[in-house]
Amino acid sequence: MGAHQNANFRMGEREMILITGFFAIIAILTYMFPSFAETNSDGQIDWITMPLVGFPIIASGVLMAFASMATRRRKRNIEMPIKLASLFFSLFMLAITTSLFFGILESINWDFSTFNSYELEFSYAWNTTLGVNWHVGMDALSFSMVWLTTLLLPIVMITTWEEKAGWYHHPLILMMGGALIGVFVSLDLFMFYVFWELTLIPMFFLILKWGGSERRYAAQKFFIYTFTASVIMLLGIITLYFLNDGSFDITELTRSSQAASDRGDVWLGANMQNALFLMFLLGFLVKLPAVPFHTWLPDAHVQAPTSGSMLLAGVMLKMGGYGLFRFCVSMFPDALVNFQWLLLTIGLVSLVYGSLVCLGQKNLKKMVAYSSVSHMGVITLGIATMEPLGFTAAIFMMFAHGIISPMLFAVCGSFKHHYHTLEIGAMRGLARHSPFLGVFMMFSWMASLGLPLLAGFVAEIAVLIAFWKAFGWWVLLPGLTLAITAAYYLWSMQRTIFEGGLEGELPESLHGESPVDISRWEGSGMMIMALLIVLFGILPWIVFDMMSGYSLAVFTGILGFGGV
User: Fold this and answer.
1) How far is the C-alpha of 12 from the C-alpha of 76, rounded, in Å?
2) What is the greatest pairwise CA distance in the chain?
3) What backbone phi and psi angles, to 5 degrees, belong to 381?
4) What is the pLDDT of residue 11?
5) Is residue 417 within 8 Å of 364, Cβ to Cβ?
6) To 10 degrees, the CA torsion angle through 510, 516, 522, 528?
7) What pLDDT score was predicted for residue 316?
8) What burial class does residue 70 get, using C-beta atoms within 10 Å of its C-beta: 0-12 exposed, 13-18 middle, 19+ buried?
9) pLDDT at 24
10) Does the bond joining 292 to the residue before it have cis omega, within 30 degrees of 0?
11) 222 φ, ψ to 5°?
12) What's residue 35's pLDDT?
């Protein structure tokens, strides 16, 4: 018996050494590969292709393939090294993006953007017959989303460290990160669509394998909704391809649109531009999501595991906002002006409807999901203002919500894990039974509702100021909605979390078990997110100036306006 256990232990050691060595080689190659690659015209090294996109996807696939060939017992032996390897690589990606932000790897000032000009831009021939190239680059808009993604990846892994079947779970998170970054850095429409669809695969399996009792329905609904809208967007991509002499190059297409605007012409003609605008808009509104295309989101969130909800709300929804800026605003400015009323209507309806529906929810995750719909409405309103400050506020809201919403879903997941329910009524007296969980839950809701000195406040107040400049006293509608919703939730949370329940009374869902507070892994992830929320609330200029520079560049570059 002892010899058998020792053999298993030695087998685990060998597997750990194998995986650790494999990832050490990957890390070395990731560091060395750009050094051997050609530099661009600015002398910059390609820190995107392999370190941020290629290796996360490749490495996650190798890890899952390695685990799939192991027996159940051997999977348990290799679970820890696989999770450590995934975490290590996510931290490595974060180190690269943070170094790029502070100008350590490359001397880049992200605060001064030029419209349709990209840093770390590289293009490699892929399929010359179709005109498809591996074309990547980042401006302030895309870099803020890339940095957000790399910030969240290790946090999600740490928060869900004890998730079952970690040998698949953590590599899927890593794959999701690589696919998301691929969306944000693609400067080729074909590549953009490939990565756009690729993000569906890991999220589909996260919901399907680690989701709740109705996970099959939720996963299928999520896939059908988003894929159908993507097909309509694909028709727009193909149309653009044929109208522009077989080019998928986003920079060339944007340059053509800019040149037409400079001449006082409507690029591609008014009717065609309007049609293309609506095709792309539908794909992005479903992903955002906005009312009335939002119904897949509550189902997906309720059934998704904690990691899936954190990534879905934190980054995946932002793909819709990113697409609105990259295509609908930058390529189709005349159509944007024509359909300003549509964006305004959708934004207001999403904000008001999402806030009101929240009030009647009994399921904690559904309540958070509808709050996300409301916040996505705020982003749409920022774009609808047609003001530089509105654009800046919308991008900052994407970034701030990308930190706040994962924390909300982290506390929801922890509550479900320890109390075996998502019913809000079971939260009564939560602070008495699980004080750390209660404090983190209250803090995350205060951040979501936009309390001062927290990241959400800066985004919401900036949107309201831009809305006032564009539409005057109509600002009372979104302003009062946000204020009333915030007051109600703070009051209700106080009653349930801190004051509800009798002394010693436990929720029925525990079935007599003693309540358990959050684990050290859950607490570590929540604490990191809380610190980031406070940091970007007190010092918003860290990223706000970068976003402001991009917004001003868009206005002066194609919309013909200046000033903030």
Assistant:
1) 9
2) 83
3) -65, -40
4) 44
5) no
6) 120
7) 95
8) middle
9) 66
10) yes
11) -60, -45
12) 54
Strand partners, 423: 363
Q: Residue 168 has which token pair?
A: 């698949």
Integer CA distances (angstroms), 257 to 140, 174, 302, 384, in order: 20, 36, 42, 20
Mean pLDDT of 306-310: 95
Q: Is the dihedral angle over the CA atoms 488, 494, 499, 500 positive or is it negative? A: positive
Q: What is the mean pLDDT of the chain?
A: 88
Question: Any idea which of 98-107, 309-318, 351-360 has the lowest mean pLDDT?
Answer: 351-360
Specify the pLDDT at position 99: 95
Q: Please report how the helices 140-159 and 520-538 are oriented relative to each other, as an axis angle in degrees rounded to 10.
A: 150
pLDDT tens digits, one per residue of 155-188: 999 999 999 999 999 999 999 999 999 999 999 9
CA 222 from chain centre, in angstroms, equals 16
pLDDT at residue 197 in the model: 94
Chain CA centroid to CA 81, Å: 27
Give yes or no for a contact between 199 and 115, defined as CB atoms under 8 angstroms apart: no
Terminal Cα distance for the chain, rounded: 74
Interhelix angle 55-68/166-185, rounded to 10 degrees, is 160
What are the structure tokens assigned to 234, written together?
């694909």
Q: Using alpha carbons, select from 397, 429, 433, 430 the residue that is nearest to residue 412.
A: 430
- Candidates 113, 172, 103; CA nearest to 142 is 113
Cβ partners under 8 Å of residue 431, min gap 6: 438, 439, 442, 497, 498
Torsion of CA 196, 202, 208, 212, to 10 degrees: -90
Neighbours of 537 (CB within 10 A): 22
CA atoms within 13 A on the CB side of 132: 12
Q: How far apart are CA 406 and CA 417, in angstroms?
A: 16
Residue type, 401: H
Q: How many CB atoms lie within 10 A of CB 295?
A: 13
Residue 37, judged by CB atoms within 10 A of its CB (0-12, 13-18, 19+), counts as middle
C-alpha to C-alpha distance for 262 and 360, rounded to whole angstroms: 50
Mean pLDDT, residues 124-149 taken together: 93
The helix (H) or strand (E) run that includes residue 16 is helix 2-36
Label each residue of 391-414 as H, E or C: HHHHHHHHHHHHHHHHHHHHHHHH
Residue with tokens 């209507």: 345
- What is the C-alpha to C-alpha distance for residues 391 and 554, in angstroms, rounded to an integer? 9
Of 162-166, 334-338, 459-463, 506-510, the least confident:
506-510
pLDDT at 501: 55
Alpha helices in 264-387 (DSSP H): 270-287, 296-303, 306-311, 318-323, 333-338, 340-359, 364-384
What pLDDT is stored for residue 10 in this prediction?
43
For position 36, what pLDDT does the model report? 54
Give 124's strand partners: 134
Give the Å distances, CA to CA, from 437 to 71, 127, 162, 369, 498: 37, 52, 17, 19, 11
Residue 421 amino acid letter: T
How far is it, in rounded angstroms, from Cα 289 to Cα 294?
5
